[in-house]
């Protein structure tokens, strides 16, 4: 088994727990001979990351923690930004500041939880969600994916990223998400590149 280290920058509390789970699952699908060592994600609020010096500081912090041999993956919600513009801009900034580090940026369109919506049928009955659970026609269009998850719970509770995101990341159907979410497909492709 080959060890590969991937450090991540995330914006939300839920992603801090969910990203290592998701990265390990994806790596297992991409190449079962790899073991991904993913240290605790570096959490940077979106506004801080996007402002001048934000990406550069985040990358410098991770390089200080894990060295230059680790790949760095930034995962940010698009919200209302265009992922095809925001992602390359973040990578360009990261590479300008540390050209010696392999860096990728994936912009979840619109939110990380859109990836769950893309694979909604596979989450039926999980974490209080309805069974059956039907995927929205275009899972990357809803602006409030967290609200969609809350509205589709039958246990009377709201979706909470800090307590639900990692649990859902551990069970949603990766192939289904990839098929129905272009931004999740980009995560798959970018991680494949970082894994070498």
Q: Which percent range fits the helix content?
A: 40-55%
Individual helix count: 9
What structural class results from the helix and strand content?
alpha/beta
N- to C-terminal distance = 14 Å
Mean pLDDT: 96
Outline type: globular
Q: SSE string, helix = H, strand = E?
A: EHEEHHEHEHHHHH
Instruction: Give a count of the beta strands, DSSP E runs of length 2 or more.
Output: 5
Rg (CA only):
16 Å
Please identify the oligomeric state: single chain
Main beta sheet strand tally, sense and closure: 5 strands, parallel
User: What share of residues are in beta strands?
Assistant: 5-15%
Number of domains: 1
pLDDT < 50 stretches? none
Helices and strands, with pairings:
Layout: E1 2-10, H1 13-30, E2 34-37, E3 42-43, H2 46-50, H3 54-66, E4 71-77, H4 83-97, E5 103-108, H5 114-118, H6 145-151, H7 161-169, H8 174-180, H9 182-195
Parallel strand pairs: 1-2, 1-3, 1-4, 4-5
Description:
The structure is a single chain. The protein is an alpha/beta fold. The chain has one domain (2-195). Helix content is 47%, strand content 14%. The chain contains 9 helices and 5 strands. It has helices at residues 13-30, 46-50, 54-66, 83-97, 114-118, 145-151, 161-169, 174-180, 182-195; strands spanning 2-10, 34-37, 42-43, 71-77, 103-108. Strands 1, 2, 3, 4 and 5 form a 5-stranded parallel β-sheet that branches. The longest helix is centred in the N-terminal third of the chain and has 18 residues, at 13-30.
Give a brief rundown of this model.
With 196 residues, the chain is an alpha/beta fold. The protein is 47% helix and 14% strand.
